[in-house]
């Protein structure tokens, strides 16, 4: 599961500064919502498959 979260953090570290520099606040908010949802979903799926 650590690999999934490592990938998620890398994506956030790349994407968030781009959106902030372009002042795309709505896109940043949408990205954050989908990022959290994807992280929770991945954790649930990996938890189900792993256990």
Walk me through this protein's architecture.
This protein has one domain. It is elongated. Helix content is 90%, strand content 0%. With 51 residues, the protein is an all-alpha fold. The longest helix has 26 residues, at 25-50. The model has no long low-confidence stretch (mean pLDDT 91).
Task: Summarize it.
With 51 residues, the chain is an all-alpha fold.
Structural class category: mainly alpha
Instruction: Provide the β-strand percentage band.
Output: under 5%
Distance N terminus to C terminus?
12 Å
Tally of DSSP helical segments: 2
* Biggest beta sheet attributes: none
Low-confidence stretches: none
Helix content: over 70%
Spell out the helices and strands N to C.
HH
What's the overall geometry? elongated
**What is the rounded Rg?**
13 Å
- Quote the average pLDDT: 91
Total tally of structural domains? 1
Number of strands: 0
């Amino acid at each position: 599961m650590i690999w999934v979260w490592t990938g998620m953090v890398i994506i956030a570290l790349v994407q968030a500064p781009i959106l902030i520099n372009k002042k795309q606040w709505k896109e940043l908010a949408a990205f954050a919502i989908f990022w959290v949802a994807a992280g929770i979903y991945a954790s649930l799926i990996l938890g189900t498959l792993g256990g």
